[in-house]
From TrEMBL:
Compartment(s) of residence: Endomembrane system; Nucleus, Nuclear pore complex
UniProt record similarity statement: Belongs to the WD repeat SEC13 family.
WD repeat feature ranges: 9-43, 55-89, 291-323
GO molecular function: structural molecule activity
Lineage: Eukaryota, Fungi, Dikarya, Ascomycota, Saccharomycotina
Record membrane topology: Peripheral membrane protein
Name assigned to this protein: Anaphase-promoting complex subunit 4 WD40 domain-containing protein
Coiled coil segments of this chain: none
Biological-process GO terms, alphabetical: cellular response to amino acid starvation; mRNA transport; positive regulation of TORC1 signaling; protein transport
Gene3D superfamilies per the UniProt record, alphabetical: YVTN repeat-like/Quinoprotein amine dehydrogenase (2.130.10.10)
Keywords associated with the record: mRNA transport, Nuclear pore complex, Nucleus, Protein transport, Repeat, Translocation, Transport, WD repeat
């Protein structure tokens, strides 16, 4: 089945690098090389996107935007090649389109290179975000007082790459969090053509668990699916080598000898937020499927809210929707064209 998209004019003067929806899909934020962020509201009567506000957000290209979970308010984060993270909050007392509706609450510096990706952790971990940039360092920040989002604390700084890539070489970095409440905190970081899973141990340190296999080019995008009651995890990547890859992760506790040990470990996690055994030691990774239908680079992958449908976008100007069959084989169920008819 082939469908077409309905475009709308954003008003950006240069290339749009990223867009993000809020939790409910009623707001859309875009960012661009013109150094501006624009936020649009969905009109429920006409299904049109109406400009909420537009403002100059950074001193260089704005490359990523991300909404926080709604329980923390109307919060938006942005990163830029100017090496800074900025936190914005919507002020409903300001008029729409005034350029003042989104207030800057904080500017976070510290990266030694251009930033490439930012992601909020799942809300059960608190107001936490991670960033990764061209210096190859994963930085994780916490807002220790959600009522005061002007103060952010760096809680972890991990060198993902031993040596940052040369400035003259093409590079890419991305990250995604495990949304599961019922296993140790995990974050997946993609740096160049490698993907590393970091797991939080019982000493509150992020340690490397496993690597995803098979990539033969820069990893452009990564997405960790909501578990929704599954006993395993699903991760998708989009790669410069033209492939969409879907991985299955299963994990068991180190030293599991039977049900009694498993129950003890789960009770420890529920009580202390950490397992007694070392995490990440028994993560098994299986490649479920690979697809090169885009006939070129894959730039974006994203799961739906139930983790049952994967969308991918590539150089062919299409969005493809993937869904598993009863035999757990992923097939393309729809192709959406970005070309106007």
């Amino acid at each position: 089945m082939k469908e077409s998209l309905k475009p709308f004019a954003t008003g950006h003067e240069e290339l749009i690098h990223d867009l993000a929806y809020d939790f409910y899909g009623r707001q859309l934020a875009t960012c661009s090389s013109d150094q501006h962020i624009k936020v649009f509201d969905l009109d429920p009567n006409t299904s049109e996107w109406i400009l909420n506000d537009s403002w100059k957000a950074h001193d260089s290209s704005v490359v990523k935007v991300a909404f926080a979970a709604p329980e923390f308010g109307h919060i938006l984060a942005s990163i830029s090649y100017d090496r800074s993270v900025k936190i914005w909050e919507e002020d409903f007392d300001e008029q729409a389109g005034s350029g003042r509706r989104w207030k800057r609450l904080a500017t976070i510096s510290g990266s030694q290179g251009a930033l490439y990706d930012i992601a909020f952790a799942p809300s059960h971990l608190g107001l936490r975000l991670g960033t990764i940039g061209s210096d190859g360092v994963l930085r994780i920040y916490d807002a220790l007082e959600p009522s005061n989002l002007r103060n952010w604390t760096l809680i972890s700084e991990l060198s993902v790459l031993a040596v940052p890539p040369a400035a003259n070489l093409q590079s890419d970095f991305s990250l995604t969090w495990s949304p599961s409440r019922f296993s140790p905190e995990k974050v997946l970081v993609c740096a160049l053509d490698q993907a590393f899973i970091y797991v939080k141990d019982k000493n509150d340190r992020y340690v490397m668990g496993k690597m995803l296999p098979e990539h033969n080019g820069l990893i452009r995008s990564v997405s960790w699916a909501p578990t929704m009651g599954r006993s395993y995890h699903l991760i998708a990547t989009g790669c410069k080598d033209g492939y969409v890859r879907i991985f299955k992760l299963t994990e068991s506790l180190k030293g599991d000898d039977g049900l009694e040990d498993t129950v003890k470990e789960l009770d420890a996690f529920a009580t202390n937020g950490a397992y007694d055994s070392e995490p990440g030691s028994d993560i098994q990774i299986e490649t479920l499927s690979t697809h090169n239908d885009h006939d070129g680079e894959v730039w974006k992958v994203s799961w739906n809210v139930t983790g049952t449908i994967l969308s991918s976008a590539g150089d062919d100007g299409t969005i493809r929707l993937w869904k598993a069959s009863y035999s757990n084989k992923y097939q393309c169920m729809s192709v959406i064209s970005a070309q106007q008819k």
